[in-house]
Every structure is written in structure tokens, then in C-alpha cells.
């Protein structure tokens, strides 16, 4: 089932101007973008402050200037806006989906069928996308639906930053939206309103023949596209810098063995072209064009630049069973959407056989099956939960090591869990503690190990103290627990007890 993400940038010209201004523009002053045609000048975009003051898109610039004295006015630059949108499309192509296109002058559209699991699901995909764009100073809304038309309409007409329409719920979601959601011309919309048709639901209830006779085929076509009755393929963005190989078939193919054979041929061609450019692929997309005018795709990500045909072929061919050829495949395109320089290195000869363990092939296989891989590395911090961070499984060693003065549990909780404890203050370990509703009697204990707060980084931790104990219960299970505070002074902590890790 196709899943389409529409990304809408309602203030793209405003955001571009603020991000690329030679000097920071005052954030408390209204800002508008002024377009011109001959002697006519009008507002083509306005920031929220200007809108609150009564300015509107389409308003003559002279009238806006008369209404607001300290108005900031910048000339429109459609070419620069289009260049920003194209860069955003290429970024989304490399990060989220093989099928990404520019949608008008204010948005992007991408087909994420089969790609959302790499981001943890559709909710995490769109929320992560919106958050990353917000971090770069862009105002954005995004919607996911089964069709381009539905996602386009919801991203633009709903106030929510992210909207995910469940499969099969498109009609009930869009039925009450106004006609502007259908991407019809203003003349057609005005004509329909004269007839009392102002929502998608009312339009869909009308007989087709009279509508087509009066307004042409466009209203019915847009309705069918929105409801998924007619396909609306997305033509993905491509630039000359992308290395690709393609194969068109005189007769459609569909057998898995045949698909695998041609995939290996395409990989061979792509690897040869990468070698000519001195590049290695970090991400490859196999786009399947079916005879019913729909597409499927496979994405293969790699931990480091690669152009080994056998390795690339394995990553793609291992997932051929996910391809549904339908009535047949008429074209396949293999694109290296993300490539990096790759230099051949000569292995020095040695009398001693040295075994070099390369885990990147395993990382690639697991990563392309939806697993999110990482390894942990030490961080210079006395606070246990801050002394470790996640890094890429193939990242070089950081050179940091953990201190081994006191034992640390192999399973450390990200957030310490509160426990009920019976213990003598200030320095005695727990005699009994209750965790997850189970009472445990302590038979052995070691400690305390006192850890102080990092007051030089967090002033609130100037007096903070934790006293850690390694305790063992009657079943031989060992736990790492601590008391927040020194047991005497309330300023050092709450004196509550927590379980922070488990040994063994």
C-alpha cells in the first residue's frame, strides 16, 4: 500500500531571508516579502507578526506600508526559494526515501512505502523530519496518507505539525475539507461555490456527467487521485551528480530469479561508474517501475563507502522477496544517492599473518533489515549515566577508558528506578529493599562509593551526593543501588533510594 508524505513550508521565503541575511533581522519587527510585476507591488509572504497586524498575502505593498510604520520589506526572489527547496529535496532523498519530488513552490512530496521502518515507524519518521527542519530555522508541517492528494491537502489545511492518516481512513479524513484541498484552479472553485458545492464531500456526492460537462474532467480526476482510484506517480528528483544505472525491458519480468539476475547486472554497471569517479556508495536505491504505473523500491545503506559488486548485490538480492511485481516490471533503476570518495589501499606484506576483523558487512546486513545498531563508548564523567554514549558501530575508537576502581554493572538503567529500603543512616547499606513489588533481603553488601555532582557543569549539583552500594540478595542476585544524599544534610539529596543497575 503506497504511503505518501507531504512536507509543507508555509513561510519558506521568510525563513530563507532570516537564515541567509548578512545581518540578523530583528525578530520583534514584522517582515514581509514583496513581489512585483511591472509597476505593481504586492505582499507575497508575511511572517506571523505581520499577519497579526492585519497584513495579508496579496495586499498592495503601499497599503501595507501605510498600515505598519516599522515594516521590514524584502524583495521576493523566487529563484532562490526554488534553490532552497531543491536542496531540501536532495537532503530528503538521501535521508528518507528514494522517491522525493518538489511539490509546487512551497513543499516536498515523497513515497515512503517500505522505508518508514528504518526510522522507527511513520510517527517517528514525520516527527523526526519536522524536528530536524525546525532545528534549522524552518517552519514546517507534514502529513502522511495513502495518496499524494490527501497528504498534500492535510499538510496545508490542518494546524497540526504532523498528521498520520491510518490506512483506509482517507475518505473520512478529507470529506469535510474545502475545495482548495483538491488543487483545482480558482475559476473552477468559484464556479462550484456558485452551485453551493464548497467541500470535498459535497463534490464527491455530485453526478459525474453534469460536472464534467460544465467544468471539464479536472474535478473528477483530482477526486479520484485523492481517494486513490487513479494513480498519481511521483517523479523523483535527479541531478547529474547522482551515479545511476537503468534497464528497460521489452517484455515485463516478474520471476525472483530473473529480477535477481538483472539486479546483479545493474550493480556491476553502477560499480564500474563509481570506480570511474573514484567513489564508493553509502546508500543505494533500487527503483522498480511496474507496468501498472506504480513503483516499488529497495534501499541499501552501507556503513562505509563500498563499490564491491558482490557485497552490494547481496544486500539488494537478500530482500527481493519483498518486491511485488504485480503484472510485471518494465524498468529498474539503481541509483547511488549518497556516495563518498573511495581510494584503493595497498595491504602491506608481512611475515606474520594479521587477521583484520571487518564487521561492516554484518552491520550492513543487520541495518538493512531494520535494526538500529550502535556501540557504547566511555565519556569522561563521574556520574554513571553520563559516562557512556552511543556511537556508530563502525566509528573509530575514541581513546577513552572507564575507571576500574569500583565494579560497574553490565546492565545499567538509563533512568534509576525508585525502591523502598530499610537501612540505618547515614552509612549502612540496605537490609531489605522492595523493587517491582518484590521484597528482597540483603545478605551481603559492599560500599559506600560516594559520587559527587558535576557542579562545574551544573551549578545546581554543587551539594549533590550519591552513595552507591553493591548488594546481594538471598537468591544470589547482585544489584547496584544508591541513596540520593549523604544521609544527614537534606541539601545533598532527597535521601530516597534507587536501583541503578543489575550484575550478571
TrEMBL record:
Spell out the protein name for this chain.
DNA-directed DNA polymerase
The record's similarity note reads:
Belongs to the DNA polymerase type-Y family.
- Alphabetically ordered keywords of this record: DNA damage
Domain (DNA polymerase Y-family little finger) spans 245-329
Question: Matching InterPro entries, A to Z?
Answer: DNA/RNA_pol_sf (IPR043502), DNA_pol_Y-fam_little_finger (IPR017961), Rev_trsase/Diguanyl_cyclase (IPR043128), SulA_CellDiv_inhibitor (IPR050356), UmuC (IPR001126)
The yes or no answer to whether the keyword DNA damage is present is yes
Q: How does it assemble?
A: Monomer.
Among Pfam families, the record links this protein to:
IMS, IMS_C
| Obligatory cofactor(s) | Mg(2+)
What does UniProt list as this organism's lineage?
A: Bacteria, Pseudomonadati, Pseudomonadota, Alphaproteobacteria, Hyphomicrobiales
EC number(s) per entry: 2.7.7.7
Q: Which domain of life is it from?
A: Bacteria
What are the UmuC domain coordinates in residue numbering?
27-152
Give the function comment from the record.
Poorly processive, error-prone DNA polymerase involved in untargeted mutagenesis. Copies undamaged DNA at stalled replication forks, which arise in vivo from mismatched or misaligned primer ends. These misaligned primers can be extended by PolIV. Exhibits no 3'-5' exonuclease (proofreading) activity. May be involved in translesional synthesis, in conjunction with the beta clamp from PolIII.
Catalytic activity of the protein: DNA(n) + a 2'-deoxyribonucleoside 5'-triphosphate = DNA(n+1) + diphosphate
> What enzyme class is recorded for this protein?
transferase
What is the species listed in this Swiss-Prot or TrEMBL entry? Shinella lacus
Amino acid at each position: 500500500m503506497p504511503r505518501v508524505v507531504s512536507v509543507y513550508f508555509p513561510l519558506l521565503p521568510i525563513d530563507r531571508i532570516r537564515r541567509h541575511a548578512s545581518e540578523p533581522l530583528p525578530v520583534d519587527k514584522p517582515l514581509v516579502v514583496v513581489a512585483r510585476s511591472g509597476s505593481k507591488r504586492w505582499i507575497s509572504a508575511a511572517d506571523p507578526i505581520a499577519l497579526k497586524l492585519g497584513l495579508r498575502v496579496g495586499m498592495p505593498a503601499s497599503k501595507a506600508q501605510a498600515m505598519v510604520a516599522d515594516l521590514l520589506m524584502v524583495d521576493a526572489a523566487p529563484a532562490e526559494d526554488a534553490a532552497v527547496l531543491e536542496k531540501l529535496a536532495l537532503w530528503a532523498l538521501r535521508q528518507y526515501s528514494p522517491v522525493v519530488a518538489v511539490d509546487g513552490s512551497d513543499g516536498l512530496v515523497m513515497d515512503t512505502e517500505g522505508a518508514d521502518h528504518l526510522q522507527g515507524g511513520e510517527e517517528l519518521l514525520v516527527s523526526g523530519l519536522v524536528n530536524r527542519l525546525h532545528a534549522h530555522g524552518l517552519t514546517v508541517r507534514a502529513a502522511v496518507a495513502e495518496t499524494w492528494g490527501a497528504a498534500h491537502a492535510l499538510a496545508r489545511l490542518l494546524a497540526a505539525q504532523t498528521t498520520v492518516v491510518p490506512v483506509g481512513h482517507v475518505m473520512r479524513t478529507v470529506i469535510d475539507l474545502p475545495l482548495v484541498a483538491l488543487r483545482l484552479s480558482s475559476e473552477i472553485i468559484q464556479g462550484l461555490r456558485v452551485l453551493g458545492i464548497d467541500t470535498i464531500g459535497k463534490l464527491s456526492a455530485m453526478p459525474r456527467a453534469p460536472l464534467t460537462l460544465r467544468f471539464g474532467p479536472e474535478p473528477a480526476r483530482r477526486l479520484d487521485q485523492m481517494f486513490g482510484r487513479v494513480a498519481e506517480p511521483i517523479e523523483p528528483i535527479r541531478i547529474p551528480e547522482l551515479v545511476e544505472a537503468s534497464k528497460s525491458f521489452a517484455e515485463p519480468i516478474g520471476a525472483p530469479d530473473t529480477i535477481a539476475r538483472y539486479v546483479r547486472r545493474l550493480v556491476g554497471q553502477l560499480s564500474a561508474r563509481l570506480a570511474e569517479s573514484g567513489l564508493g556508495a553509502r546508500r543505494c536505491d533500487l527503483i522498480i517501475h511496474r507496468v501498472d504505473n506504480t513503483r516499488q523500491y529497495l534501499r541499501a545503506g552501507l556503513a562505509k563507502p563500498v563499490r564491491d559488486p558482490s557485497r552490494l548485490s547481496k544486500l539488494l538480492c537478500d530482500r527481493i522477496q519483498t518486491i511485488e511485481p504485480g503484472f510485471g516490471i518494465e524498468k529498474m533503476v539503481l541509483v547511488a544517492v549518497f556516495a563518498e570518495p573511495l581510494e584503493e589501499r595497498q595491504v602491506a606484506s608481512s611475515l606474520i599473518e594479521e587477521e583484520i576483523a571487518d564487521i561492516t558487512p554484518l552491520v550492513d546486513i543487520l541495518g538493512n533489515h531494520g535494526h538500529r545498531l550502535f556501540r557504547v563508548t566511555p565519556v569522561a564523567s563521574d556520574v554513571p549515566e553520563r559516562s557512556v554514549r552511543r556511537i556508530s558501530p563502525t566509528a573509530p575508537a575514541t581513546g577513552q577508558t572507564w575507571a576500574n576502581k569500583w565494579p560497574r554493572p553490565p546492565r545499567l538503567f538509563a533512568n534509576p528506578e525508585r525502591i523502598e529500603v530499610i537501612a540505618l543512616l547515614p552509612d549502612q547499606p540496605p537490609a531489605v529493599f522492595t523493587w517491582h513489588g518484590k521484597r528482597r533481603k540483603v545478605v551481603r553488601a559492599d560500599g559506600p562509593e560516594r559520587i559527587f555532582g558535576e557542579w562545574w557543569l551544573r551549578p545546581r549539583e554543587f551539594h549533590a551526593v550519591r552513595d552507591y552500594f553493591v548488594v546481594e540478595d538471598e537468591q544470589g542476585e547482585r544489584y547496584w543501588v544508591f541513596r540520593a544524599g549523604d544521609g544527614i544534610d537534606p541539601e545533598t539529596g532527597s535521601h530516597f533510594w534507587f536501583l541503578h543497575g543489575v550484575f550478571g
